[in-house]
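Can anyone check this?
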Amino acid sequence: MTEQLRIHDHPVLAPLPEPSVRFTFNGREILARPEEAVSSALYAAGISTFGHHHRDGGAQGIFCVNGQCSQCTVIVDGRPLKSCMTLVREGMVVRSADGRPPLPADDVLPVLGRPGEHRTQVLILGGGPAGLCAAVELGKLGIEVLVIDDKPSLGGKLTLQTHQFFGSVAECWAGTRGIDIATILAEQMKNLPTVKVWLNATAVGVFADGKVGVVTPQGYRVIESEALLVALGAREKSLSFPGCDLPGVYGAGAFQTLVNRDLVHVSKRLFVLGGGNVGLIGAYHALQAGIDVIGLVEALPEVGGYKVHADKIKRLGVPIWTRHTVLRAEPEPGGERLHSVTIAEIDKSFQPVPGTERTYEVDTLLIAVGLNPCDELLEQAKEIGLKVYAAGDTAEIAEASAAIFSGRIMGRQIANDLGAKVTIPEGWPSMAETLRSRPGPTQVAEEPDLPQKVYPIIRCVQEIPCNPCEAACPEKLISLGGSIMGLPRFQGTCYGCGECVSVCPGLAINLVFNDYDPTGDKSLLMLPFEFSLDRVPLGMEVQTVDMVGNPIGTGKVVAIRQRPEQDRRHLLLVEVPAKDKLRVAGFTIRGPSVPVEQPASESDDDPIVCRCERIRKSAIVKEIRAGVRDLNQLKAMSRASMGGCGGKTCTDLVRRIFREEGISPKEITPGTTRPLVAETPLEAFVRSTEDSNG
């Protein structure tokens, strides 16, 4: 058995149980952790190609690791299943999905009958931050709630977020790590007797009678409720470019699932496409896991995410190239896994600028180009005239802090509509709007040389909703000016406690100690550090950088402060020349990214658009030029969106091709979404024996 690619020393996450569950993949014995997804166990064993498509033999790996696509399908004990949604079992026999899998034998004659029926006052679809917060508000009022989630545990994307959250300390746990917020909410749920949870359960349709169909491990169930809340979150968008379908090219959320949830060391050299918060945070999480991040490209002139997120990875040595994109991804010579990416500068029309191409050797490319709401069931409910509510990313794509708050508001709104006596505080709607705000203007950084023994330098220069620094200072010396969107300002006499350095989610605060060296030649800085300490042994010389990663000089780590209240963040005391004390904001942990000679391209210039059916761009263009303007007709003619994901991944890409062909969106007839909105085995509708519901 080969060595496993596991993360054993993470600066934030606790170790997971050792692998102890044995199963086979194509005859090879694999060792997995208990309750681990098959996809994670395969990646930990160094397997990234899960099969080959029957249409053209194209290699299949992962893309979303969230049950939204069918890219990771494997054959489990004779049945095709999504490996990211299937947990390992002792003795499980798994093989790659090569070609068309044979139908399983009908060895049991099923009993046909009515599905189990259930009633509840409120049905919540989605156990992420919005759904859980709504359930807590309703449960506190004694309202009967059923929460449905397709994962084995609650928390949604919170379970992947190892960083400290932005937002309001009082309203949405700002300054607390996402993984810990998930634990807080799950604990609150345990104390609410009227709230029930079904895990590993997928809602697949809302029907004309107002009932919701749900596939559970025990089979198909129909649920009737007085109120329906859809809080299913969002799915990652994709891009179509040569090589986009190679194993090793997948979503940033999928990466966070493998690395932060399952502690799998999935990569050695990684590249990121997309400069929103998802891409920036994904790059930071990769560095924390010991993975080298070669670079990040963003097509717009500026990154769309928070500046503090971009600055902190720049300081660590990761280059960010704006007005750039990925031209193509190339496989390893003679192989089928990602080996390199070629990037280029783009002009104002988003066209590559000739002569600016550069190629970097990588084994992973993360796609982080935005999110689409998981709103199919919401739209179905609206179409039949059902009273339905939405919260979190299903209602509007925003940060998780906004999802938390929108869930709280919607929980109370539903309670009101059901006749409960509860008010929505006057300031809540405006706070929700603030938490959904885009980043505001950027100001010039202030780096004052104050005549004090110790004082903070705050490099938070962009208006974003965040107040942990103001709340953390025991002397109330940091103020946002009365608005959570205000820029923090320091005034008064600092005592050097370091609370602000410990809690700032953007790692944008450090302390300057002026009385460190009697000669005045050297100063001492307190800098935040969220990596394993073996990267900076005591006494190590480091290469210091300014706020945005420009080199300054050198410094030396002279002390390390570790306390439980620092929440798994180290505070390093770094000695620097006194002349550098105001400019030094951190130090790099990696060298420059060096391009390689561009290899002869092996990728097809006719890229895949529909991953499930392996439909290429040329096939879509052909139908558009033949006059097709109806996505339903396009589906029938080309098979695009006819696969397992039902168009969830490719519809945006198809619409983009229409635009490229000069077709107005007004001319396009949208596709029809019908139940079932998720892949559902026929065995879910039958059972081998009668259950308690007959």
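Reply from J.R.: I decoded it. Residues 164 and 505 are 5 Å apart (CA to CA).
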